[in-house]
Structure of Tumor necrosis factor:
Amino acid sequence: MERGDGLLGMVPPPGKLSGGWAGKLCGVVMLVALCGTSAMLFHCHGLTQSHGNETNEHQQNLKQISTNMKAAIHLHGEFNPKVYNKSVQWRDGDGHSFFQGGLKLANNEIIIPQNGLYFVYSQVSFRVLCSSAAGHTNQPLSHTIMRWSDSYSDEKPLLSAVSTMCQSDANGLGRRYNAVYLGAIFSLESEDRLWTDTNQPKNVDGGDGKTFFGVFAL
């Protein structure tokens, strides 16, 4: 064998490949394949780990947002005699109504999730047909926010207002519109229940933005 033959001179002629040479070639091929597979697995592991880190970071961000979210609820009201024939029905799935942070609507009452300061508010709009002949003059309309608390095991008015709807005039007949608004800050306790009491729910105007009830934490 001459020096110029290089590796070619080391390879046995075709058909005369010994068992030792065959084993060496197979070992080289397997080594190359294993190196390629290891590189692919390392790359995939890196992508999976990176995706996992992004998912964990996203979950932490959502948890932080949820923690910082202020408790709030805003309800739309209407008179629905099929559900409540003596009070306004409050709904949390209509128009601009929503709830978050633990405040919720249950049995037409707002449930307070934890102790703290809250702004409580409500407005009821009335639409009344006034007629002096029917004795509808100076018709009072009242709206009250009630509270039940375990601290005194009783219900008490939280806010209340009265408005006179019909006034005598030369016309003597006509449809009148009026609104009663209530709102103030209160220190409330966990599991307190808030609801409303309206003396003439059948005259409540349930149009968008006219009758509502809400609470938000400060």
Remarks:
- The radius of gyration is 38 Å.
